[in-house]
Design a protein that fits this description.
By secondary structure, the chain is of the alpha/beta class. The chain has 6 domains: 8-115, DNA repair protein MutS, domain I (MutS, DNA mismatch repair protein, domain I, 3-Layer(aba) Sandwich); 128-265, MutS, connector domain (Nucleotidyltransferase, domain 5); 351-397 and 406-545, MutS, DNA mismatch repair protein, Chain A, domain 3 (Orthogonal Bundle), CATH 1.10.1420; 574-791, P-loop containing nucleotide triphosphate hydrolases (Rossmann fold, 3-Layer(aba) Sandwich), CATH 3.40.50; 798-829, no CATH class; 845-874, no CATH class. Helices cover 45% and strands 18% of the residues. It is built from 30 helices and 27 strands. It has a 7-stranded mixed β-sheet with strand order 13-23-24-25-21-26-27, with helices on both faces. The longest helix is centred in the middle third of the chain and has 33 residues, at 511-543. The chain is elongated and about 130 Å long. The relative contact order is 0.06. The model is unreliable at 818-823 and 825-832 (pLDDT under 50). Residues 701-717 form the DNA mismatch repair proteins mutS family domain.
Length: 875
């Protein structure tokens, strides 16, 4: 193109790009998606693909790159993970149609979809066992609300959420994308980033509550939302923002959203982001799933069951009835091992019904999604027959498995066992389902045989065995005889129609032959059109029953999770916890589920179980745990928090017995980390997290705190730890485990009624410390820090110097010296000579005698004599 002129195609590209700011534009050109200008530069770098040029614009070459359409999903996944949004512009007409308007006419194109982190539906772009939530936050008149959906499953939920609660709720949901009003973008972007979500601002009009109500009633085709529940204006606004964004990104082709479910504040255990991180509930501190609680306990057989498991442990219930129903169902399947194994065997053959249904609704599905619905519903019918005489939770789930017999029969008759991925590939409708399709396929696949049969038929009718049916590009199919037999065919003008004569042959046709020719030539396209027509009909039949199918999918997930928890309990010897409305917390023989699993994998090592009893007469109940580092204090703290979480999530627990009064909040401050991005040191992070606990914990909370105050000077740290413990006892009045290396604080148990001392046992042997990992009542006499440092491999000179300093400090303490005077007395801050090398001691008599011995030359009696000799030397 010239420097001054923009071609029609490039003008179209620029116009579409300008209408979709902030997104890379995938511009369909035949079998490729092309990108130009800055989009090409960004995409080439992000995807590591070749950058080329196409023409000129304003005197400069136009950068260009492209990706094949058939491989586009892999490139999309890379771009989304790197923070891009992608607008996909498809060809909306056949290029032949465009040419009818003129030689230089441009094929009509427009964006059919905007791909963003929260709007993915394809299997290749999603993690099968995790939700992909799109969330929206709105605030009206200081009233906040949070709504979220997973368009790949159709789930939609909403809850009241003041701004102060947004961070913990985002941590619970881990959405991929957060929608916010544009005037709140700056304020909320950091919260979204902390939760791992891309923050997308929308205009205020998207969150207008009046407009939102109209959008929502239109979506579900109802006159009022009252049938779904009562929603505040802020909740309507948040849901309206979601739906408006889906209109924008899906270009009007809305996903199959289920009726909204309102979650009430206080229905689940409150767990903030730092606690989730410290306890490694769904993600290990290293960043992956492996090493987390979720990975350790996941025995689910289906993708939907796995997603439900993650929701349950992320949001443990506070409703006693719900918790007990879950435990009752689990106990039944634990006792009925044959039923449990039968259920799990069937569940392993259940596809992901929710996501197949969603793809069909968005017109991104294919024949395999039809088969997934068929196979899933068939397994549901099979499962329902086995769930008789079961507890209430399982019987309710069983009721949702039936009612699909007609649809299953239709799909079973219509579909082959293993259909192709795409409808355009054909071959997915079973033989015998449609006579016309069968005949068309026969013509497509057996055209020569059909012609041969017709040739034999005409040869018999004409009495000419030498009659042939032939084909050429000019006449198509025709009947040919020699001039000798011409009169025999001309004698049947009702059947044979003359077409051409040559010197030696006469050519005829028939109406049936002409019709057959047309059918053969068009058979492939016609067969595909018939299959596509059936695909649309089957898809519509499924979508007409989307509501009941969704109920079945959720019932299957519930049964799967219950059976998985039972399998986990049977494998790990877990017990049913007693969860009640008391303030009890009595764990006998408790174990850490993740550490125990890791030990088993490392050669079958056993985990040392421990008791934890916070059930006291006083309102606060706090164990102050002392003992050396590496003795297992942090493991003990975490395992008790995880046991409480598992119990209220509906699972059995790794213990010999457990009684847990309902926990309202779970707080954890364990481990050391900094936050350099926000200018926070390790100690500042520790103090921020501790402040959040002290400001929020109520008397039903379970708090675990580890080594408060260690990030600052000794006396500062001790005073902070002391004051924190007093606040937990006097103000929060909660149940807590408080680990500290300040063993001086053990004296507080005599002053605070609700505080008891506990310690992790160790044993000293010849100057070395042996960790027993046993927790018992009482206090540690010291911290054993120098011994642990020796185990860590510090140089011997450093260890010896540390011992000298420690003895002097402890001696000064006993003599009542002030710390400053004590430091002045020590050469700690004086110029000291460099450490001298430690001279090894001369070998002892025993060692010298052993050095002279050749064990291979000893006889049995000689070895015995030598043993007596060495014993004499030792004494």
């Amino acid at each position: 193109m010239s420097d001054e002129t923009v071609t029609p195609m490039m003008a179209q590209y620029l116009e579409i790009r300008d209408r979709n700011p902030g997104a890379l534009l995938f511009y369909r050109m035949g079998d490729f998606y092309e990108m130009f200008f800055q989009d090409a530069l960004n995409a080439a770098e992000a995807l590591d693909i070749a950058l080329t040029k196409r023409g000129f614009h304003q005197g400069e070459p136009i950068p260009m790159c492209g990706v094949p359409v058939h491989a586009a999903e892999g490139y999309l996944l890379t771009l989304i993970r790197k923070g891009f949004r992608v607008a996909i512009a498809e060809q909306l007409e056949d290029p032949a149609e465009a040419k009818k308007r003129g030689y230089k006419s441009v094929v009509k194109r427009d964006v059919v979809r905007l791909v963003t982190p929260g709007t993915l539906t394809e299997d290749s772009l999603l993690e099968a066992r995790r939700h992909n939530f799109l969330a929206a936050y709105s605030e009206l008149r200081e009233e906040g609300a949070l709504a979220w959906t997973d368009i790949s499953t159709g789930e939609l939920r909403v809850m009241p959420c003041p701004l102060s609660r947004l961070g913990p709720e985002l941590a619970r949901l881990s959405p991929r994308e957060l929608l916010v009003p544009d005037h709140l973008e700056t304020e909320l972007a950091e919260l979204g980033s902390e939760a791992g979500a891309a923050t997308t601002p929308l205009a205020r009009a998207s969150f207008d509550s009046s407009g939102a109500e109209k959008r929502l009633t239109a979506l579900w085709q109802v006159g009022s939302l009252e049938g779904f529940g009562s929603f505040s204006r802020a909740e309507l606004s948040a849901m309206g923002g979601l739906v408006d964004y889906l209109h924008l990104t899906q270009r009007g082709n809305l996903p199959l959203l289920r009726a909204p479910v309102k979650e009430m504040a206080g229905g689940t255990v409150q767990i903030d982001a730092s606690t989730r991180r410290n306890l490694e509930i769904t993600q290990a501190l290293s960043g992956g799933r492996e090493g987390s609680l979720l990975a350790a306990i996941d025995r689910t057989a289906t993708a939907a069951g796995a997603r439900l498991l993650e929701r349950r442990i992320s949001s443990p219930s506070r409703d006693l009835t719900t918790i007990r129903l879950r435990h009752e169902a689990l106990a039944h399947l634990l006792d009925e091992s044959r039923l449990r194994e039968d259920l799990r065997d069937s569940l392993r053959r259940v596809p992901d019904i929710d996501r197949a249904l969603s793809r069909l609704a968005l017109d991104r599905g294919g024949p395999r999604d039809l088969a997934a619905i068929r196979n899933g519903l068939a397994q549901a019918l099979s499962l329902s027959a086995r769930l008789s005489g079961v507890p209430r939770l399982l019987s309710q789930a069983a009721q949702g498995l039936t009612g699909h017999e007609t649809l299953v029969d239709q799909l079973d008759q219509a579909l082959v066992a293993e259909p192709p991925l795409l409808a355009r590939d054909g071959g997915f409708i079973a033989a015998g389902y449609d006579d016309e399709l069968d005949e068309t396929r026969r013509l497509r696949d057996e055209g020569r045989g059909v012609i041969a049969g017709m040739q034999a038929e005409y040869a018999g009718l004409a009495g000419v065995p030498a009659l042939k049916i032939k084909h050429n590009n000019v006449l198509g199919y025709f009947i040919e005889v020699t001039t000798t037999h011409e009169e025999k065919l001309r004698a049947r003008p009702d059947l044979f129609i003359h077409r051409q004569s040559t010197a030696s042959q006469i050519r005829f046709t028939t109406l049936a032959l002409n019709e057959l020719e047309s059918k053969i030539l068009n058979a492939a396209n016609h067969a595909l059109e018939l299959e596509k027509r059936h695909y649309e009909g089957l898809k519509r039949a499924i979508l007409d029953l989307a509501g009941p199918i969704g109920v079945t999918a959720r019932a299957l997930a519930e049964i799967d999770l219950c059976a998985a928890f039972a399998d986990l309990a049977a494998e790990g010897d877990w017990v049913a916890p007693v969860v009640d409305d008391s303030r009890a917390f009595d764990i006998r023989g408790g174990r850490h589920p993740v550490v125990e699993r890791a030990l088993r994998r490392q050669g079958g090592q056993s985990f040392v179980a421990n008791d934890c009893d916070l059930t006291t007469g006083a309102s606060p109940a706090i164990w102050m745990l002392t003992g050396p580092n590496m003795a297992g204090k942090s493991t003990f703290l975490r395992q008790n928090a995880l046991i409480a979480l598992l119990a209220q999530a509906g699972s059995f627990v790794p213990a010999s017995s457990a009684r847990i009064g309902l926990v309202s909040q779970l707080f954890s401050r364990v481990g050391a980390s900094d936050d350099l991005a926000r200018g926070r040191s390790t100690f500042m992070v520790e103090m921020v997290e501790t402040a959040a606990i002290l400001n929020q914990a109520d008397d039903r909370a379970l708090v675990i705190l580890d080594e408060i105050g260690r990030g600052t000077a000794t006396w500062d740290g001790l005073s902070i730890a002391w004051a924190t413990l007093e606040h937990l006892h006097d103000v929060n009045r909660c149940r807590a485990l408080f680990a500290t290396h300040y063993h001086e604080m053990t004296q507080l148990s005599a002053r605070l009624d609700g505080v008891e001392n506990a310690t992790v046992s160790v044993k000293e042997w010849q100057g070395e410390v042996i960790f027993l990992h046993e927790v018992k009542r009482g206090a540690a006499d010291r911290s054993y820090g120098v011994q642990v440092a020796r185990l860590a491999g510090l140089p011997v000179s450093v260890i010896e110097r540390a011992r000298v300093i420690l003895e002097a400090l402890e001696s000064g303490d006993r003599q009542g010296k002030k710390s400053t005077a004590l430091i002045d007395d020590l050469p700690l801050f004086r110029a000291a000579p460099p450490p001298t090398a430690v001279t090894p001691a001369a070998p002892s008599q025993v060692e010298a005698r052993l050095a002279e011995i050749d064990p291979d030359q000893l006889t049995p009696i000689g070895a015995l004599s030598l043993l007596y000799e060495l014993k004499a030397l030792k004494t």
